[in-house]
Amino acid sequence: MRQKHVPVRTCIGCRTAQPKRSMLRIVRTPEGEVQPDPTGKKSGRGAYICYSTECLQLALSGRRLQRALGCDINETTIMEMESLVSEQHT
């Protein structure tokens, strides 16, 4: 029997490759709004982060997330991402 293909993505915080479904997708919508996308189905430019506060802090402090999405991220979105990561991490 043939094994099903599992998409792999790289975390922009720690740079490790993991299955797509085990990571949080952050998306910049066509309207330019940045938001977390736990479903992974919203249209727009996406970047992936592990469900780890350390990875999120690395991605934000080094401006890796901003560079990957090509825009700045507001405080409200950062707080929303932090709550999703801490909620999933525990």
Write up what this structure looks like.
With 90 residues, this protein is of the alpha+beta class. It has a single domain, classed as Hypothetical Cytosolic Protein, Chain: A (2-Layer Sandwich). Helix content is 33%, strand content 24%. The strands form two sheets. Strands 4-3-5 form a three-stranded antiparallel β-sheet. The longest helix has 15 residues. The N and C termini lie far apart (36 Å).
In short:
The protein has 3 helices and 5 strands; from the N terminus they run βββββααα.
Topology:
Blueprint: E1 8-10, E2 17-19, E3 23-28, E4 34-37, E5 45-50, H1 53-61, H2 64-69, H3 75-89
Antiparallel strand pairs: 1-2, 3-4, 3-5
Give the low-confidence spans.
none
**Which CATH architecture is right?**
2-Layer Sandwich
Number of domains in the coordinates? 1
Termini gap:
36 Å
Mean pLDDT: 92
Number of helices: 3
Taken in chain order, the helices and strands follow as EEEEEHHH
* Main pleated sheet: 3 strands, antiparallel
CATH class designation: Alpha Beta
CATH homologous superfamily assignment: YlxR-like
Strand content: 15-25%
Total strands: the figure is: 5
Class from helix and strand fractions? alpha+beta
CATH structural fold name: Hypothetical Cytosolic Protein, Chain: A
Alpha-carbon Rg, integer: 13 Å
Output the strand order for the largest sheet: 4-3-5
Helix content: 25-40%
